[in-house]
Design a protein that fits this description.
Blueprint (H helix, E strand, L loop, with lengths): L1 H6 L2 H14 L4 E6 L2 E6 L11 H15 L6 E6 L3 E4 L4 H6 L3 H20 L4 E5 L1 E4 L1 H7 L3 E4 L7 E2 L13 H9 L1 H10 L5 H7 L4 E2 L8 H5 L26 H16 L2 H17 L16 E5 L3 H13 L3 E5 L3 H20 L5 H8 L2 E4 L8 E4 L5 H14 L5 E4 L6 H5 L8 E6 L8 E6 L5 H13 L3 E4 L8 H17 L4 H11 L5 H8 L1 H15 L7 H4 L5 H5 L10 H21 L6 H11 L12
Parallel strand pairs: 2-3, 3-5, 4-6, 5-7, 6-8, 7-9, 10-11, 10-13, 11-12, 13-14, 14-15, 16-17
Antiparallel strand pairs: 1-2, 15-16
Helix pairs in contact: 3-5, 5-11, 6-7, 7-8, 13-14, 14-15, 19-21, 19-22, 19-25, 20-25
Length: about 625
C-alpha cells in the first residue's frame, strides 16, 4: 500500500480502491494527479462522510509522509459525495467515550492530525461543494485555503453546542484566528450554520469557485501560490495575544479539558442520542413488507388557505416537483395565502436557500381557486376544526375525486376513525397532522383509522419523507401523541397562574430548562380559542385528567392570560415550577405508552424533540 501511495500512477488509485473495498470499513481515497496529493472523502457505508477514528489514523499516516515529501506540490481535500464535504466526528464513537482519559485521547488524535496539516509547507486546500460542519470545518480551517462553490445546500458551522458538547479538534482557536474572536464566539455559542455565501462574507471561505472547477485541482492551484491564508501571517485586524500560534498548545489543552468534561455528562449523551434518533427515523421503514408500494404523486391539493394550509403548500412546492392547488371558499383568504407564500419564498432567497429563478419557478407551481380541482393524487384538508364542516367536505370530495386519490386530514383533535365514517372508500383516508409552521417543523403525526389501507399508509409516509419530514405513525386516540402530552402541560401552567404564581416566573422556569418558549407564551402563539377548543375536545374524551382551566374555558376570563405576563404574582422556586409542569408531561407520556399510542419511549422522545422543541439534551423520563 505504501508503495502504491507513492507511485502516483493511474493503477495506484485502482489498487487503493480495490484494497479499501475488500478490507476497509470506510472510504477515504488518497491519490496523486500532476504531483498534487488529493484526499477524497467518500464513505460508502453512510449517507455522509464522517471523521471517524479510523479515518483520522489513515490521514495522519498520509500527512506524516507528506511532511517528508519534496515532490508533491500541494494537498487538496475533496468529497466524492453530493452535497456533503465532511460531517464531523462519528456520533456513535462520541457516545462510546466513557472516561476523561478516553475523551482527551480522542481529542488529541484529532488535534495532532490537524496540527500536522497546518504545518505542511505545501499549499493545503479544502474544496467545499457540500456541507462542512463540526470536525469537518475544524479540518478545513487547518488548511491554508478554503474554497467553496455556490451550492445552495452547503451549510458551514460548529453546531456542537446543540448536542451538549463543544469543538474538540482545535476549531475554537482556528475559527477565532480566521474571522475574529467576537464572530467566532457568536457562531460557536449559537451552533448556527451558515450558507457558503455568508461564510464568504464572514471570511471563513477564502474564495468562490464554479461547480465545474471543483475537481480540477491543477487549475485551482495556479492562483493560490505556495502559501495562502494563515499560518503564513496573522491578519492584522485580529487580536494577536493568546490567539497567536505560540499559544496553540495551551489553547488545545484547554479545549480538550472542556470537551472531556462535557462529553461525559448525561446532557451530552442525551443530545448525541437525539441526533442519532432523528437520523434513525428520517427514512424509517414503518411498513416492513415490500408488497405495499407507494403510489406516484404528481398533483396535490390543499384545502384551507389559513396559516397551516399556506405552510403546507409552501412545503410541498419547495420540496417536490409536483403541482399544488390551494382551495378556499374565501377569496380574501386566498389572496392573503398567495402573498404569504410569496413572502416565504422571498425570505428563502434572502437566506440563500434558493436562487431567485428557482424560487420563482417553485412559486408558480402553486395555483389558487375557490373550487377544488378534480385531477389530484392527494388532498390535504386543513380547514377550521369543526367536525360537521369536515364531514360535509369529505362527502363532497368523494364525488369529484378519482377513486385512487388519497384524502388526508390535518385535524389535531378529532378522531380519524369518526371522520372516516363520512367516506364510502375509507381505505384511502388517513390523518396527517403537521405542526405549525409546517415548512419549519419536521415532525408529522400519521394517524390511520382501522380502515386505512397499507398502500395508502406507505404512500403517505414516503410522500412526507420525500419532503424531508419525519413521520411518526400513532394510534388514533384523543390528542394523538404530542397534544396528549402538551395540552395538560399548558393547562397546568394556567392553573398555576390562577393560583397567583407570576406568569413571568412560569415561562422563565421552562425557558431556563431549555424549552424554546414558555407555556403561557406558547398558548398565545397557538391562539387561546384554538387551545381552548382542542382542550375541551380532549376533556370530553379523557375526563378530569385533562380538565381545561376556568381562565381558558371562559371567553371573558381569557383576557387575563393576555395581561398576565406583565403582572406580579406570588413567588415560587423555579425548580418547583419545572418539576410540577414536567410531571404533568411525564404522566401524559406514560399514558401514551400504556395505551399503545406508540410502541416505544424513543418515539415519544423524538416527537417531543421535533414537535414542541423539548431540549434534546434532556429526557422526560425519570428513569
Amino acid at each position: 500500500m505504501k508503495r502504491c501511495l507513492n507511485q502516483g500512477r493511474a493503477e495506484s488509485r485502482y489498487a487503493i480502491n480495490l484494497y479499501r473495498l475488500l478490507f476497509c470499513p470506510f472510504m477515504l481515497d488518497y491519490y496523486k494527479s500532476d504531483n498534487i496529493g488529493i484526499i477524497e472523502f467518500n464513505d460508502r457505508d453512510s449517507r455522509v462522510n464522517l471523521l471517524s477514528s479510523v479515518n483520522i489514523d489513515e490521514m495522519r499516516s498520509i500527512v506524516d509522509s507528506l511532511a517528508k515529501d519534496t515532490i508533491t506540490r500541494a494537498l487538496f481535500f475533496i468529497s466524492g459525495k453530493k452535497d456533503i464535504f465532511l460531517a464531523g466526528a462519528d456520533i456513535k464513537e462520541l457516545i462510546a467515550l466513557e472516561t476523561k482519559e478516553e475523551a482527551e485521547l480522542f481529542c488529541k488524535k484529532g488535534q495532532e492530525l490537524l496540527d500536522g496539516i497546518e504545518r505542511l509547507k505545501m499549499p493545503t486546500v479544502a474544496v467545499l461543494d457540500g456541507s462542512c460542519i463540526g470536525g469537518g470545518l475544524e479540518l478545513a480551517l487547518s488548511c491554508k485555503t478554503i474554497l467553496a462553490t455556490g451550492n445552495k445546500r452547503i451549510r458551514i458551522g460548529l453546531p456542537e453546542v446543540k448536542l451538549g458538547i463543544s469543538p474538540g479538534f482545535g476549531g475554537t482557536r482556528r475559527l477565532a484566528r480566521k474571522i475574529g474572536l467576537r464572530r467566532a464566539n457568536g457562531l460557536i455559542n449559537s451552533g448556527r450554520l451558515v450558507s457558503s455565501r455568508e461564510a464568504l462574507k464572514l471570511k471563513i471561505v477564502d474564495k468562490f469557485i464554479l461547480e465545474s472547477e471543483k475537481v480540477d485541482c491543477k487549475r485551482l492551484l495556479k492562483p493560490l501560490g505556495r502559501c495562502v491564508g494563515y499560518p503564513k501571517g496573522q491578519p492584522t485586524h485580529l487580536p494577536r495575544g493568546r490567539l497567536s500560534p505560540e499559544y496553540a498548545g495551551e489553547l488545545d489543552s484547554m479545549e480538550r479539558e472542556i470537551f472531556s468534561k462535557k462529553i461525559l455528562r448525561e446532557e451530552a449523551k442525551n443530545g448525541l442520542g437525539s441526533f442519532l434518533l432523528v437520523s434513525k427515523y428520517k427514512k424509517h421503514a414503518w411498513l416492513d413488507s415490500v408488497e405495499y408500494k407507494a403510489s406516484p404523486l404528481k398533483n396535490c391539493g390543499v384545502i384551507g388557505a389559513g396559516a397551516m394550509g399556506r405552510g403546507i403548500a409552501y412545503l410541498v412546492s419547495s420540496r417536490l416537483d409536483i403541482s399544488i392547488s390551494v382551495t378556499d371558499v374565501n377569496r380574501v383568504i386566498l389572496k392573503k395565502a398567495k402573498a404569504a407564500i410569496k413572502k416565504i419564498y422571498a425570505d428563502a432567497v434572502k437566506k440563500d436557500i434558493f436562487p431567485n429563478e428557482d424560487a420563482a419557478s417553485r412559486f408558480r407551481r402553486v395555483s389558487y381557486a375557490s373550487v377544488q380541482a378534480a385531477d389530484l393524487d392527494i388532498v390535504i384538508e386543513s380547514i377550521t376544526e369543526d367536525i360537521s364542516l369536515k364531514n360535509k367536505l369529505f362527502s363532497g370530495l368523494e364525488k369529484t375525486l378519482a377513486r385512487e386519490c388519497i384524502i388526508t386530514t390535518n385535524t389535531s383533535c378529532f378522531s380519524v376513525e369518526e371522520l372516516a365514517g363520512s367516506l364510502i372508500y375509507a381505505d384511502r383516508f388517513v390523518g396527517m397532522h403537521f405542526f405549525n409552521p409546517a415548512y419549519k417543523m419536521k415532525l408529522v403525526e400519521v394517524v390511520p383509522s382501522t380502515l386505512t389501507s397499507k398502500a395508502t399508509l406507505k404512500t403517505v409516509v414516503c410522500f412526507l419523507q420525500d419532503m424531508g419530514r419525519i413521520p411518526v405513525i400513532v394510534k388514533d386516540s384523543p390528542g394523538f401523541l404530542v397534544n396528549r402530552i402538551l395540552l395538560p402541560y399548558l393547562n397546568e401552567a394556567v392553573f398555576m397562574l390562577e393560583e397567583g404564581i407570576a406568569a413571568g416566573k412560569i415561562d422563565s422556569a421552562m425557558l431556563d430548562f431549555g424549552m424554546p418558549v414558555g407555556p403561557l407564551q406558547l398558548l398565545k402563539d397557538i391562539g387561546l380559542d384554538v387551545a381552548c377548543k382542542a382542550g375541551k375536545t380532549l376533556e370530553e374524551k379523557l375526563g378530569s385528567r385533562v380538565k381545561v382551566p376556568q381562565t381558558l374555558a371562559n371567553k371573558d376570563l381569557r383576557i387575563r392570560l393576555l395581561e398576565a405576563q406583565h403582572c406580579q404574582g406570588r413567588a415560587m422556586r423555579s425548580e418547583d415550577i419545572r418539576n410540577r409542569l414536567l410531571e404533568t408531561m411525564r404522566r401524559g407520556a406514560k399514558a401514551c405508552l400504556e395505551k399503545n399510542i406508540v410502541d416505544t419511549p424513543e418515539v415519544i422522545d423524538l416527537a417531543l424533540f421535533l414537535g414542541i422543541g423539548f431540549p434534546g439534551c434532556k429526557r422526560i423520563w425519570k428513569n
